[in-house]
Amino acid sequence: MSQITDSDTLTTAAVEETAASSVAGIDQTAGDFKYDVKYDFDAGSGLSERTVRYISDVKKEDQWIRDFRLNALRTFLARPLPTHWATRDLENINFDKIRYYLSQGTKPKRTWDEVPADIKMTFERLGVPEQERRFLAGVEAQFDSEAAYSNIKDAVSKQGVIFLNSSEALRTHPEIFRRWFGKVIPTGDNKFSALNSAVFSGGSFIYVPPGVKVLHPLQAYFRINAENFGQFERTLIIVDEGSELTYMEGCTAPKFSTSTLHSAVVELVALKGAKIQYITVQNWAPNVYNLVTKRGLAHEEAEIKWIDCNIGSRLTMKYPGVVLKGRKSRGEVISIALANDGQHQDTGAKMVHAADETTSSIVAKSISVGQGRSTYRGLVHIPRHLKGCKNNTECDALLINTNSRTDTYPAITVRGQDHAVQHEASVSKVSDEMIFYMQSRGLTEAQAMSLAVNGFVNDLVSQFPMEYSVELKRLIDLEMEGSVG
Amino acid sequence: MSALPALQTPSVNGVFTSDAFASHLAAVGHLPAWWLDLKRAAWDRFGALPLPGRTDELWRFSTVAGIKLNRCTLAETPDAGFPIPPAVFPCAATLAFLNNRALAGEALSPELGKQGVIFCPIEEAVVHHAELFQSHFMAQAVNLGSEKFAALNAALTRGGAFLYVPRGVEIETPFVVHHVAAGDGAAVFPHTLAILEDTAKATLVENFLSTDPAGAGFAAGVNDLFAGPGAQLTYVGVQNWSRDTLAFQLNSTVVQRDARVLSLNVHLGGRQARHESHSRLQGPGAFSEMLALTVAQGEQEFDQRTLQSHQAPNTGSNLLYKNALLDRARTIFSGLIIVDPEAQKTDAYQSNRNLLLSDEAESNALPGLEIQANDVRCTHGATSGHVDAEQMFYLESRGIAPSAARELLVFGFFEEVLAKLENEALRSVLRESIKANLKT
Q1: Do A418 and B362 touch (CB under 8 A)?
Q2: Dihedral Cα A180, A184, A185, A189, nearest 10 deg
């Protein structure tokens, strides 16, 4: 157990004071920092039954969840890495060097005043208080493993909405939690969902009671702050009959020299007629493995929409899915990925139709810059004995440099004659004419390229909430710097 | 033949035992030593390679449990009385093979012979055109999953055509090859090698059929096409094996600078038929058109794997695979376009259209892209749908019976592909064989 000791000194490490972006006036180093933090609990590095028991002990968990974790650990250890279809880069993860649990205490802070000053400063740079000012309904900011700050606007809690850190929800609302937990994504779904099930900590739990429309998006920020520290948050959202919810998650992480693992599991349940929109804007540091399992279960006439934006990380493997379990349910995935030098965005979507008249739509756009590689991997499954299912999939890839790379690997199974399924994909580059036109009107080549890329994703970005689309545009400008010339 | 290594797991390789190979070698003992060495090496590869497994990505969605090598026999059943199917359109020359053995065909005209055109069974080619044949035989690796069956073909093949068209020779009428499997459980190994030199032009048509349309059978075919600079090659393969045949057909096409190859494969027969097609575009201006039509019915499974390798700049390829599915049939289309980093200005298209005509039919599509150059135009599409109700209504309202209307719409669906063939006589033959098949 190696604990970090020199705490109170705040040092912004590895911040290079480079010139601000000439394109959009963005500070490139935003989110690129690290504070030394004193951790009260630290499970040390490496993964064993001892690690898992330590986590359960710290969290004072019930026996059923302890058993659940230990079972998951066995599944994780038994499963091989899925390198028969996925990239062999997975073999570079050293599971023994990762620290699976770090925490400053298990009790989430309730008010802003209670949040320690050093953590406040971290959030200041992430812009959390600003979000607050902008009248967002609730902020559940996860600092490493535990929620360091948590607040729900009165209006939302009065409606009966439960918005908690998932560890806390496990203690306070075991009946709802246990009913749905691990039902959408079983432990053995894949090796990394098993890993998460063994060591999960933090993440959000939301329950929206029947007939409640949550007008303001709920929001959480995730960060990784300790070197070699995996973050294994677990999110469970249940939206009861006829209710509506929008949830947003954003990620920034400081740059570190050795690889870090992030492996989350997100389960959504939309009961009859419910609507869930789950928005992710992710900007991990270029050494992070981001291996996330996200899936929603849509009951009759329910609607689940994933808006997923992946920028950064070394390797992202993420295929948000919807199981269309109820008649006339609907699933949608909107995915934007940007892969820069040394990055591989292996993203996509899964649509499993399991009832009549279900519809799904996937729109994926990727941008490969420099030697970046973006991959679309998708699954559409319509088994037999169903009627009137529809799927539409569109994937467009934009290649910026001559050595950029993109792949598309969809898998579409359709049984029966009463369905309509179509898949289309295209690969292109930014046309020289377009760049010339903009340059002849006084833009630099970099500005023109940035504008063209933003234009490529604009129809998707416009579906994001305002502040996210602004942030996303800035992130794209930032990534496009130095890609031309 | 004691030098032959024992196979790892004899049961997996079914009837293809060391003894079977030994008697095959004895039967072809009169052929040149290099050919026999090549066969021995191929046999070793066959023995060393495993059967496809359930988690093998190259066999995703395939019923790998259906791949059993024990439902056929290697016994030769020559039937001299078998009539060569009559020519229904003008041909340059015809070859026919019955259970791997050459029958007398319609010979090449002396005029073509004088121009240096070669069209003969491969066992003649290994003797008389050894150098030419050897330099191209299996020169392109089969790498879409069926390496084991390609090796089996190389080890056991006796039947198949060798076509060589020298520089500048253009032949409009097709060369025709019939591969016939006779008797219950016949195992056949058709092997085709076609070489077109610079600016040559030719059409090659192959028919694969069984004498007993319901009998069991096994086929492992390999087909290598080489189109030299500026050459134009049209290839048509019509697979109509018996309904109880396990079939593998592995095609490789090399397209050099400014050459054009059009290949159309029509899939009608077999119980479980795997077809692999790999086009390599090796010189600027090369273009490959890859077409396929499939009528899948009963319990048939058609498994099609394609690869469009763009290895040089300014190359083009266009793939269009259309499947009509009836009854409880299954189709798998797995296509990939690979654009190498140096293959800028590639224009590649890949499309798989599935027309589902029953509630139990299943189509699987895996249309893939791997692009490593940025100045390219690559698109792919896959659709699965049904007969348009409005079109049905239109035809029915004009007094056409529903079954006839449906057939018309299926033909309309296929016509887009057939229309790409220039030879009208060939087109109508294909229409007839599809029509005949739809009714059985």
Answers
A1: no
A2: 130
Contact: A84, B374; criterion CB under 8 Å: no
Q: State the smallest CA–CA distance between residue A426 and chain B in angstroms.
A: 4
Q: Could you give the ipTM of this predicted complex?
A: 0.85
Q: Do A402 and B341 touch (CB under 8 A)?
A: yes
d(CA A157, CA A177): 18
Which residue of A401, A404, A417 is in closest CB contact with B356? A417
Q: Which amino acid is at A116?
A: P
Q: Residue B5: is it exposed, middle or buried by C-beta count within 10 angstroms (0-12/13-18/19+)?
A: exposed
**What does the pLDDT profile of chain B (440 residues) look like in tens digits?**
344 454 445 568 889 999 999 999 999 999 999 999 999 999 999 999 999 998 899 999 999 999 999 888 876 655 556 677 777 788 899 999 999 988 877 788 899 999 999 999 999 999 999 999 999 999 988 899 999 999 999 999 999 999 999 999 999 999 999 999 988 889 999 999 999 999 999 999 999 999 888 889 999 999 999 999 999 999 999 999 999 999 999 999 999 999 999 999 999 999 999 999 999 999 999 999 999 999 999 999 999 999 999 999 999 999 999 999 999 999 999 999 999 999 999 999 999 999 999 999 999 999 999 999 989 999 999 999 988 889 999 999 999 999 899 889 999 999 999 999 999 999 999 999 998 888 65
Residue A399 has its nearest CB partner, among B55, B374, B382, at B374
Q: Please judge whether A84 and B387 are an interchain contact, meaning their C-beta atoms are less than 8 angstroms apart.
A: no
Please provide the DSSP assignment of B282-328 as one string: -STT-EEEEEEEEEE-TT-EEEEEEEEEE-STT-EEEEEEEEEE-TT
Q: A interface toward B at CB cutoff 8 Å?
A: 84-85, 384-385, 397, 399-429
